[in-house]
Amino acid sequence: MKVAVLGLGAEGLKAVESLRKRGHRVYASDIRADIDLNLEGVDVDLGFHDTERIASSDAVVLSPSIFGTGLWESFSDRLLCRVLRGHRDPVTVAVTGTNGKTTTASMIAHVLESSGWRVLLGGNAGGGFDGYTEIILRAAEEEFDYIVVEVCDMTLEFASECFDIDLAVITNLGEDHLNFHGSMENYRESMASFLEGRAVVISADEPHLEELTSGARSVMEYTPYRGELVLEGEFNRLNAGAAAEALKFLGVPSDVISRHLSVFRPVAGRIRSFTVNDALVVAGKTDNPHAMRALLRESNFDVIFLGTPRRSEEWRLGILDEIAESPPEILVLFPGLDDTIDMALEHLKSLRIPSEILTVHDPGDIPEMVREFSREYRRILVAGNGQDVIIRVQEELEGLASCL
């Protein structure tokens, strides 16, 4: 099959990878001319989209950012998610919101799979999954009873077009991707549109619950889960509460839910705890102010290692404002998604926090620094932006914890 992939951000690049490994012929293009790509065996145009080549393709994959544009209008009938239909058949649960999406989606999939169902778990490429195209292709190759898909708040329209969603699970709405939404009001409007006509699971404490669910077909409210969990933190009890309510909607008995949730392990890159030299070390992606606020509400830390955001996402530096409310003795900045330590240092000037500020430009140095700090300090946090970096740190910390 000849497939045109338009837009070569995280989602587009994952789509190219998924298509290539299955032997499809791929034409890829991006309106940006200054991106550095190495896509061997793929015809690539940068700076423009060749509409003739797109028109000659059997299917088209559009970056979610292109939805609603002229390209979408021209080629909507040839979208891969319309050419292939296998992903339309399984019962589909969409998990969206600001924080906790991956954990909640993984919990739902874990319980369903442990109960004997065939489950496909996936989501947007930016969230650590292999992208929406991988879900569509796998569902065309195999039979599944359920699809559990994590939906980024920037791809709500895309998901509405490409999946037949039977249940929408909302974790929370916080300050994330404001460069895309423009404001929290716009974000809520987009979410309300996404939920319209659907069965919805949403927190009973959501302050804009009525506004968000006014057009929903049915609404189920969840509260923090109080059963046994391996995962720590009240925020994970909220994730488990959302998962449990979704599973009840799907007809899973309560005793089955509790049995399988009790053994669910943390997802790589998300919040985990380690003991190093008798010190508590907490590590996990915490990439927006809302997530950091939730974490610091439960505990103060003597030392915080913080990964910095992309240069284009300066608003994420609001994480530092949250840290300033409960400043550690030592704050260590490291490159998370980009080396934007300079931006973070500039932002800190206005906060005047009393912490000692250190920087480390090689994240590979962090585990040894944690080991040294753990000899003096009792509570250490490694968080912020940079999921891949934090996963590597977690792997090193696991080794440290097991050896000491």
UniProtKB/TrEMBL annotation:
One GO cellular component term: cytoplasm
Keyword set includes Zinc-finger: no
Keyword ATP-binding included in the entry's annotation: yes
PROSITE patterns: FOLYLPOLYGLU_SYNT_1
GO molecular function term, any single one: UDP-N-acetylmuramoylalanine-D-glutamate ligase activity
Protein keywords: ATP-binding, Cell cycle, Cell division, Ligase, Nucleotide-binding
Mur ligase central domain ranges (all copies): 95-213
Positions in coiled-coil regions: none
GO biological process terms held by the UniProt record: cell division; regulation of cell shape
Name of this protein: UDP-N-acetylmuramoylalanine--D-glutamate ligase
Protein species of origin: Methanothermobacter defluvii
